[in-house]
Amino acid sequence: MVKPAPIQLKQAPASPPPANTPPPSRVAILFAAPHRPMFLAGAVQTVLTFIPWLWELLARTGLVAGPAWPWPPGWVHGLWAAYGIFPFFVFGFLLTAMPRWQGLPDTPGEAARRPWLLLVSGWLVFDIGLLITHPALRIGGLALVLTGWLLALRLLHPVAFKPGGGRQHPATAWLALAAGALGLIAWLGFAVIDDPRLARIGIAIGLWWLLAPLFMVVSHRMIPFFSASALPKYEPVRPDWALYVLVGASVVHGLLASADLAAWTWPTDLAAAGTAFWLSWKWQFRRSFAVRLLAMLHIGFLWLGIAWLLAGVQGLLHAVGVATLGLAPLHAMSVGFFATMTLAMVSRVTLGHSGRPLVADSLTWRLALGLHAVAALRVLADIVPVGHALLLVIAGTGWLAVFLPWATRLVPVYLSRRADGRPG
């Protein structure tokens, strides 16, 4: 393996602040750039939402009494993950990156204040409603989340659909977020009328119409770009057809899953698997290990091909009457692809936008590798014939062992001024 080479940022010296200028408050620093509040909330959510889930997993082994859930715990877990963890990172990234994709000025940090406040307060109210089993609080919390979501969509709309601007990546990302609003409406409907079909639709939309397209769009846009900036003599490969295949397969899978016909998604799943593996090869996966921060992205993307392959094999076997693999494809996608790509991308954006060198230090690298081990354990839990409950506990513990130190390191960054003294 090639020894990682650190990347140093080349920056002009910052101008000193005027004399007698009071230091900015923590709130002013937090809203100095839109990614700051969104990433902070997402980092906190990676820990908070998994504490009760690990408690539930421990209860399934019989070691402790489990928490009281007003809804099936797996549904709550899926709701938190699809709409209450990853979207904070997605909104933060897109509010920062999408204007640059379109050649527009940066989004002011203050623009994210109202959507952020609604999203955060909504999840807080919803979680209290879970804790005290109060239906009105759960309904009100989801309504607040939906309102914040729609405000963020409105903020991104003129950027995504800028006249004369490129629309392949920004418009596709915006449409995926709009689908996420539909998923939240389905969850809100479930909270009101208790129809389990709406919960199933909300879960399917969150995975296949919201998160999978978003992460595939960002990967298609950014991995070749970051690779070209880090590796010498690198030729970026970003074919349009590959993105169409990946997003199209996800839309089809979500549609059939919502109709309880997921067993018939295998042709598009396998086509998506082949496309994802081909992109990993064309993006020169092996060369990425010259730079740890880049390798984190490439390894995370490799999980996309694995997830699609497992989904295709599972569907093909189901079509001939063999039920197997359980939730392994889903967790290869969610933990293997979404979570590891989040850790990699957010780490990179946080370093770059806080005036720090773009270098993955030893702790970040170990946490990234640890998260891949967590993903592998979670997938194996549905493949190996024994030890299912124990593997789930180990994987859940591993998640917290990765994200607790990661969040502990990053949260203070979002509450501190840039290291280079620049605004933002």
UniProtKB/TrEMBL annotation:
The lineage of its organism: Bacteria, Pseudomonadati, Pseudomonadota, Betaproteobacteria, Rhodocyclales. It comes from the Bacteria. The keyword ATP-binding does not apply. The chain crosses the membrane at residues 38-55, 75-95, 116-133, 139-161, 173-193, 199-220, 293-311, 387-408. The keyword Metal-binding does not apply. Keywords: Membrane, Transmembrane, Transmembrane helix. This is NnrS family protein.
